[in-house]
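Appendix B. Chain record.
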Amino acid sequence: MKTASTDRRDFISYPTNRVVGTVGDDTKARAAIAALLQAGFDQEDIDILHDEKDLNRLDPTGTEHGFLAQFQRTLIRALDLEEFKHLTHHVEDVRAGRFVIMVLMKRRVQRTVAADILHQHGAEFVGFYGRWAWEGLPPTTQRSPQDIPALFARAWNTRNADALASLFDEDAQFVHITGLCWHDRESIRKALADALGRIGDESLLAIDETKVKLLSPDIAVVHARMTLTGRTPAGPRTTIVSFVVHRNSDRWQCTLAHHTDVIRTTETNAIGEAAASA
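Structure tokens predicted for this chain:
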């Protein structure tokens, strides 16, 4: 499998500002790269290290020092033994024929997106290499019903349709404000990806309020009031998304969602005088 960045002269002296993870299977590695590209990462910002030649790419001088020696020199400068342990582990992964995927971050919010994609494709030892330290990025889990709206908003704000779809069951349904109904995870993903493609990068979805009603220990209804800003000249748009969720092992999944707009001028149950006298 070739690296996404194919120029062997493009040495990486140190994986600064990169999310890194190890994928052991060629098919999964290819799928992870495809998902990263689909999520908006640039091809030149994705590197796959798989063999000894790839190890040498991390020598900034192009000499025989190689990957591990460069990391050792970095260790001397940084004096961080925990970081060195993880760097060494990735070296051994490459030497064992596994695929170490490195994704350059241009925005902080991209860390979670890249890490989630790597985890979804079976990656291990996923972490972020900052200027001087390594930070582990564990897989996202839905430990309670109220996590669903928060994860929905985070995936929306990072323009990650795959992460949005992953919150839903395979046969889930999503009823849109227009009356359209999507009847499975893939159709939900496609519809949300289309919606994300129509909004600007400045758009932001924020959670205003979340209410949870447990119907049983394993089933709940979650109402989330959200505000979308930066989408239209008319100003912020407030919506309510209702999720029917159920426990699936150690996580919660959505089986049904319904979206409706909040019209502020009619946000009351009171009957107007004109209607009452009609």
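Further analysis of this model is presented in Appendix C.
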